[in-house]
Design a protein that fits this description.
mainly beta, signal, single chain, 16-stranded mixed beta sheet, FecR protein domain-containing protein, 292 residues, 3 helices, FecR
Length: 292
């Protein structure tokens, strides 16, 4: 992959900021964000077989567009509200909905993960409204934080890394809500399973796959420069800025290849808590909704 010209990133950042202040809401076909890193990935621009194109740094991402990655592919997208997503290897993601009002600093993001994995880092929108990731097995809602969603067939695994809360609702309406980072929820045909702590080694391997594909640190999009935002990034929770703030992690880690590297070495203890079940106030359970 040829080294990216820093001017390309500057142009993309300026264009992104201009669009954010000019358009409070995005309909299908309008720009929702910009690609800040890509390896072995494509985008589907329409319904025909010839509407598939390679993804390159600086591409505008539109609502209604589908993104795809190969076995070692990665795509990083920075949205207008400063949220970001990282699509892992062998994955397909559609940006269904994006809206953002610069005046109120709020809006909505909705995506469908058709298969594979995606890491979501919340921005301004997710401080007010959940960022939703739909899968074949249910819907993951992320409020003011960072989560990883994996989808394989009817099964969905959602891992809560940082923030206010994350919920997983299956197709029958059963909901589990996590308030404590380092735990994961799994949805199967039998419903949403009890929360499980994510072992540190497994968590490390999972997060590495979003930097270099398949957890191989020797390869990856190292030619993509770290972004230089034109406006300060915001924290995704009500905690004060610092080591625990994803926004500060993005700015304070110039060696990172991509915007989505918020869960690097700055939070080594995210899953290092108790190996048992979470405390009572860390999980909320909503029973299935009866249907006639």
């Amino acid at each position: 992959m040829a080294p990216a010209d820093p001017k390309d990133w500057l142009f993309a950042a300026v264009a992104l900021t201009t669009a954010a202040t000019a358009a409070p809401a995005m309909a299908e076909g309008q720009t929702a964000g910009v690609v800040t890193g890509a390896v072995a990935s494509t985008r589907v621009l329409g319904g025909g077989p010839t509407d598939v194109a390679a993804v390159v740094l600086g591409d505008a991402v539109q609502a209604g567009e589908e993104l795809r990655t190969g076995p070692n592919g990665i795509i990083h997208v920075l949205f207008l509200d400063q949220s970001s997503v990282t699509l892992g290897p062998d994955s397909r993601l559609t940006v269904d909905l994006f809206s953002h009002d610069a005046a109120t600093r709020s809006g909505k993001i909705g995506m469908t993960l058709h298969g594979g994995s995606v890491r979501v880092v919340g921005g301004m929108n997710s401080k007010v409204n959940e960022t939703e990731v739909r899968t074949a097995g249910g819907t993951v809602g992320i409020l003011g934080g960072i989560s990883i969603v994996e989808s394989q067939g009817p099964g969905t695994v959602a891992t809560f890394l940082f923030g206010q809360q994350m919920r997983l609702t299956d197709q029958n309406g059963q909901t589990e809500t996590l308030l404590r980072p380092g735990f994961s929820l799994t949805s199967t045909q039998n419903g949403v399973q009890a929360p499980q702590v994510m072992p540190p080694q497994q968590l490390s391997s999972l997060t590495r796959s979003f930097e270099s594909g398949r957890g191989d640190s020797a390869s990856g999009p190292q030619s993509t420069p770290a972004p230089t935002p034109s406006a300060p990034l915001i924290a995704t929770s009500d905690r004060p800025p610092g080591e625990a703030s994803p926004a500060q992690d993005r700015l304070g880690n110039p060696g990172s290849a991509l915007v989505g590297a918020a869960m690097g070495s700055s939070r080594p203890g995210v899953a290092a808590g108790s190996d048992g079940a979470p405390p009572v106030n860390a999980v909320r359970t909503t029973p299935p909704v009866a249907t006639s």
